[in-house]
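Hypothesis: this fold can be encoded by more than one sequence.
Test: take the structure tokens below, design a sequence, compare later.
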């Protein structure tokens, strides 16, 4: 497929393009260490189940946020705006896998946040919901550090490529 038709297809479906970029980056991030171990003759560790959630979250986060933000914030209007909106998609996509992991914990074990002794049921519910919403955002911010800003860079590069004329 020629380069121009590939870019045209990517521009027609920016949310799918961001989803593929996010999923590919998450897959690379998860498999980088085992592949290096395998190539250097070591004993590679098989990625755990939660790592698969990171890949799914990268795919879902990139796609969902791009569908919400790309056209609304004018990503296709200019290269600079495309890079900025793409970087924002990359930044905000990080908490999505954390929400998926947290939902899995809630489904499997119940609320991961136990209320302190003596707290009323309404206060415990408000505290649990607030922690449910805030903790993945905090973990996503830590993810920016762990990936050295890679998700933001991949998002910005994807946005720039989509906005380039």
């Amino acid at each position: 497929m020629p380069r121009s038709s590939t870019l045209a297809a990517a521009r027609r479906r920016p949310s799918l393009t961001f989803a593929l970029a996010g999923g590919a980056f998450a897959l690379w991030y998860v498999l980088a260490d085992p592949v290096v171990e395998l190539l250097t003759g070591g004993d590679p560790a098989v990625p755990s189940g939660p790592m698969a959630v990171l890949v799914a979250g990268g795919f879902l986060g990139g796609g969902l946020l791009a569908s919400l933000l790309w056209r609304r914030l004018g990503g296709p209007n200019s290269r600079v705006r495309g890079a900025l909106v793409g970087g924002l998609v990359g930044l905000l996509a990080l908490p999505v896998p954390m929400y998926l992991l947290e939902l899995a914990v809630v489904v499997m074990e119940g609320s991961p946040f136990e209320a302190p002794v003596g707290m009323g049921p309404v206060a415990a519910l408000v505290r649990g919901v607030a922690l449910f919403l805030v903790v993945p955002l905090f973990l996503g911010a830590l993810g920016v550090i762990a990936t050295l800003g890679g998700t933001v860079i991949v998002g910005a590069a994807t946005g720039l490529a989509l906005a380039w004329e």
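The helical segments are 3-12, 14-39, 49-69, 79-93, 95-109, 121-146, 150-163. The chain is about 75% helix and 0% strand.
Hypothesis status: open.
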